[in-house]
Amino acid sequence: MKKFQIINDQMEWGFKGNYRFFRTHTLRKFHASNIQLVAEYIDALQGRSKNSVHETYIKTNPDKLKEIYVKNMKNVMIYNKEPKNKK
Question: CA–CA separation, 78 vs 63, rounded Å?
């Protein structure tokens, strides 16, 4: 059984149609809908590719992206405690 299936069953979230409620699509959708960032940052965080023009001229700075994510991760946290900031 896959990890997402195990978590879904342990949390008793059940099924949505023919699929378990908790799956990668649901997690990505929750993240994108609640992180409260512009689409460009969401796409970069979720590993979506840029179009060819953007890929050529716009380079994402991973350190800046990390800083932006850390400031906004409270919007997608499931638990109340924030993790310790690792450097």
Answer: 24
